């Protein structure tokens, strides 16, 4: 789900990344890319915010009337009709796959690195880390992949799986994931996807709610499943991806009630005894994708085949000259729409997909054995997807490295960067000239080799990317960035900055919240998305579905995102708020918690902040995790004696210093008086995903924070 762009742009979730608290950050390698990439796996909820690229001189927003309701719409003016399929006949993912495999039969399709060696390395504090020595990519051609998929599809039925019951895939991103998925699609079987990093309760809930009878997982998950087997009521078969040739060696006591087989055993079963395929139809449910919410249990979003092919069709034209020559590095979670959409696009285009992981991406990644090569170096991808947090981290890493080197390197980098920036802002002629080549060779080439040196475009989604980071990556990597917006509910939304073919967005007034499409100078309101990519609703949850999905009299399906947006004069839509984060105070003023948090988190003393407003009062309060470093520096300068950091946080001088500082920031951000927290509480301990106070994407979890700090909040209002 979305978030006000402000909270990302001003990024408390980036700022408060506490390296020392996340063990995976230990190996903070050259240019920080390691750290950068790790974030990728920490982002389960993406994409969430739409921030369409600005286009000079092109106006895309137009006032419209939909269902008699005055609205404001954006859609591609050139095309009269929404795009539904990438090509004629590719009406479902199963059809698309079969046809693409025929067209591209001899091309490389799925690549996996062979494990040459493994070793355990101990860190100074005694913890052990696994290091891998990985070899070259080994490839399956489109033809090979098609054969394996067909065999698996047959084998699954031979194993006794009933077509009408669900299969779940619970695994990290890898080639077998896609093979299993397409195998199920070939027999019109709905697949449930669950993030590999999802907690135990969420896993059990998802499997139980969808009554999954066959679970596909990695062999490393078997032990975990054994421990929770008594709570998995409907499972009959477990199919595991073999690693280390570790099979069911008898140590898994409880699992004996299930049929446990490896993927290759299932494929053999199908090869011996083929079953005719039963391809699905366009409106059939392809996936039930569980998205982790910031509150409560995850919700399953029902995605049709039509939704996926529509998104695929829309993204293809966004990547110039996409085709068989392209090599895509896949490492983000496939259980997320963004990655699945990207891989579907590569499949449709006949491109090669090489699998990697966030922990092995670059030569300095934490799981890569010293002296051996990371995924990007070996694969030399031309295309890569990323989330803004990754790109921001790459940027920070490069900046840090440059700062450390200092002297000539720093000066040279700055001159090069500024020259390139001026060129980009001025004319494209200058940008592609001789000077660019020179700077590329002297300065940027080294940075580019981090990701293999061949990247020609990056796709970015999940949250709006700051203009700074976009420019930085653009210049340093020499590749444009296509930004995408979408939600699981709109199957990634299919809006890669230049393209909104499958969906139309419009705003509807939200009078209560004080946002109207008649607002001047920019129309504002809740963003509503319509089109072929709008999914079928929430699994077994008709109430929630009816609340946020509507069908108009022309049969067009709309999804009410809950995001508040405004249209810029050039048609660029910007997310400015989130409906549920708006509270009406006692005297009737509305306060947008997200907006206030985003503004105040730019204060240098603040690492993390949650603003809270009790509707029975006329002021708001805030819980703040202060920046220890900045605060201790201030205390030293101000001559304030304190025992330890918690003690410093409790001192009245400290509280008043932070409050003054907040007021200044609030004023410069034009917050109104009621939006400035009247009272604050400073909390010394950082909020981490492990503590359950922020999501894995480091967004604050309001409900959990409210519960945990109930007493503190009460005191602030007493
Ligand atoms: C599983 O689902 C059933 C309904 O299908 C429900 O009665 C039961 O409580 C659920 N069990 C768990 C462990 O969630
Ligand atoms: C088997 O299940 C029981 C009860 O669910 C659990 O206590 C036990 O630890 C499990 N055994 C193993 C080997 O995980
Ligand atoms: C696919 O399966 C669904 C649900 O099991 C069923 O309603 C539909 O008719 C099937 N489609 C085809 C083309 O057989």
Automatic annotation (TrEMBL):
GO MF, one annotated term: long-chain fatty acid-CoA ligase activity
InterPro entries given in the database record: AMP-bd_C_sf, AMP-binding_CS, AMP-dep_synth/lig_dom, ANL_N_sf
Annotated transmembrane regions: 31-51
Residue ranges of every copy of the AMP-dependent synthetase/ligase domain listed in the record: 132-539
Highest taxon of the lineage: Eukaryota
Pfam families membership: AMP-binding
Entry protein name: Long chain acyl-CoA synthetase 8
Source organism per UniProt: Senna tora
Biological classification of the source: Eukaryota, Viridiplantae, Streptophyta, Embryophyta, Tracheophyta
């Amino acid at each position: 789900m979305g978030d006000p762009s402000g909270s990302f742009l001003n990024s408390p979730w980036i700022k408060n990344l506490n390296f020392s608290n996340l063990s995976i950050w230990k190996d903070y390698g050259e240019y920080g890319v390691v750290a950068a990439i790790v974030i990728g796996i920490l982002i389960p909820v993406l994409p969430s915010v739409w921030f369409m690229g600005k286009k000079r001189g092109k106006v895309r927003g137009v006032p419209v009337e939909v269902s008699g309701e005055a609205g404001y719409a954006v859609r591609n003016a050139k095309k009269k009709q929404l795009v539904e399929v990438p090509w004629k006949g590719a009406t479902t993912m199963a059809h698309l796959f079969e046809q693409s495999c025929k067209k591209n039969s001899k091309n490389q399709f799925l690549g996996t690195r062979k494990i040459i060696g493994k070793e355990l390395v101990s860190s100074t504090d005694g913890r052990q880390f696994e290091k891998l020595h990985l070899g070259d990519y080994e490839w399956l051609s489109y033809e090979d992949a098609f054969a394996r998929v067909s065999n698996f599809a047959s084998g699954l039925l031979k194993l006794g799986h009933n077509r009408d019951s669900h299969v779940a895939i619970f695994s990290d991103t890898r080639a077998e994931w896609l093979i299993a998925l397409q195998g199920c699609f070939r027999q019109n079987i709905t697949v449930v996807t669950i993030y590999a990093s999802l907690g135990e309760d969420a896993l059990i809930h998802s499997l139980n709610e969808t009554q999954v009878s066959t679970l596909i997982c990695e062999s490393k998950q078997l032990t975990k499943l054994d421990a929770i087997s008594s709570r998995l009521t409907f499972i009959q078969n477990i199919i595991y991806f073999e690693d280390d040739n570790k099979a069911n060696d008898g140590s898994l006591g409880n699992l004996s009630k299930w049929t446990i087989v490896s993927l290759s055993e299932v494929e053999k079963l199908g090869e011996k005894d083929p079953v005719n395929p039963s391809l699905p139809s366009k409106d059939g449910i392809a996936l039930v994708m569980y998205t982790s919410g910031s509150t409560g249990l995850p919700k399953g979003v029902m995605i049709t085949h039509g939704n996926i092919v529509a998104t695929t069709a829309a993204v293809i034209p966004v990547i110039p000259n996409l085709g068989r020559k392209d090599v895509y590095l896949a490492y983000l979670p496939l259980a997320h729409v963004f990655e699945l959409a990207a891989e579907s696009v590569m499949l449709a285009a006949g491109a090669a997909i090489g699998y990697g992981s966030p922990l092995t991406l670059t030569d300095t990644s934490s799981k890569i054995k010293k002296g051996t090569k990371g995924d990007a170096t070996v694969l030399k991808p031309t295309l890569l997807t990323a989330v803004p947090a990754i790109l921001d981290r790459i940027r920070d890493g490069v900046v840090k490295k440059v700062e450390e080197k200092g002297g000539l390197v720093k000066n040279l980098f700055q001159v090069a960067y500024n020259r390139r920036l001026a060129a980009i802002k001025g004319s494209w002629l200058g940008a592609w000239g001789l000077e660019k080549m020179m700077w590329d060779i002297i300065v940027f080439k080294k940075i580019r080799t981090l990701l293999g040196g061949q990247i020609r475009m990056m796709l970015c989604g999940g949250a709006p990317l700051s203009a700074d980071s976009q420019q930085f990556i653009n210049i340093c990597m020499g590749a444009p960035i296509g930004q995408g917006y979408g939600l699981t509910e709109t199957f990634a939304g299919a809006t890669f900055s230049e393209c909104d073919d499958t969906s139309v967005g419009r705003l509807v007034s939200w009078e209560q919240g004080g946002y109207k499409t008649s607002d001047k100078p920019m129309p504002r309101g809740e963003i509503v998305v319509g089109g072929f990519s709008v999914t079928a609703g929430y699994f077994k949850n008709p109430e929630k579905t009816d609340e946020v999905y509507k069908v108009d009299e022309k049969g067009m399906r709309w999804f009410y995102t809950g995001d508040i947006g405004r249209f810029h004069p050039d048609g660029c839509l910007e997310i400015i708020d989130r409906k549920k984060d708006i509270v009406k105070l006692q005297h009737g003023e509305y306060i947008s918690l997200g907006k206030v948090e985003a503004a105040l988190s730019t204060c240098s003393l603040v690492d993390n902040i949650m603003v809270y407003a009790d509707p029975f009062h006329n002021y708001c309060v805030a819980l703040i995790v202060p920046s220890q470093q900045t605060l201790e520096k201030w205390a030293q300068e101000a001559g304030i004696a304190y025992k330890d950091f918690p003690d410093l946080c409790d001192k009245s001088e400290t509280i008043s210093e932070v409050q003054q500082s907040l007021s200044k920031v609030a004023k410069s951000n034009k917050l109104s008086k009621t939006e400035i927290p009247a009272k604050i509480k400073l909390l010394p301990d950082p909020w981490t995903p492990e503590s359950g106070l922020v999501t894995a994407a480091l967004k604050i979890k309001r409900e959990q924070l409210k519960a945990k700090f109930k007493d503190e909040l009460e005191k602030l209002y007493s």
